[in-house]
Amino acid sequence: MSTQFDGAVWRKSSRSAGNGGNCVEVGFTPTAIGIRDTKDRDGGTLAITAARWSDFLDATKGGKLNG
């Protein structure tokens, strides 16, 4: 994992099933937001800015995402 997320505070999605299914974690640092698969934490982390994270949250809460 990138050292960019060393010390990040990770939070598992409240929408993740407790049965070992699809799980996503979000990690917060002062400079970036990381998104990773809970089952494969070493498999890579998507890094985005706080502004993009805010845009994503706004879009999901407002039902603006397609699919």
Structural overview:
- It comes from Saccharopolyspora cebuensis.
- InterPro entries: DUF397.
- This is DUF397 domain-containing protein.
- The chain has 67 residues and is an alpha+beta fold.
- The chain has one domain (3-61).
- It contains 1 helix and 4 strands.
- A hairpin with an 8-residue loop joins β3 (33-37) and β4.
- The relative contact order is 0.18.
Please, what is the average pLDDT?
82
Q: Roughly how much helix do the residues carry, as a percent range?
A: 10-25%
Supply Rg: 13 Å
Number of domains: 1
For the largest beta-sheet, the strand count, sense and barrel status come to: 4 strands, antiparallel
H/E element sequence: EEEEH
Q: Give the number of helices.
A: 1
Whole-Å distance between the termini? Answer: 30 Å
Structural class: alpha+beta
Strand content: 25-35%
DSSP summary, beta strand count? 4
Question: Uncertain runs with pLDDT below 50, 5 residues or more?
Answer: none
Region (Disordered): 1-21
InterPro entries: DUF397
Protein name: DUF397 domain-containing protein
Domain DUF397: 8-61
Ordered list of secondary-structure elements with their pairings:
Blueprint: E1 9-12, E2 24-28, E3 33-37, E4 46-48, H1 50-61
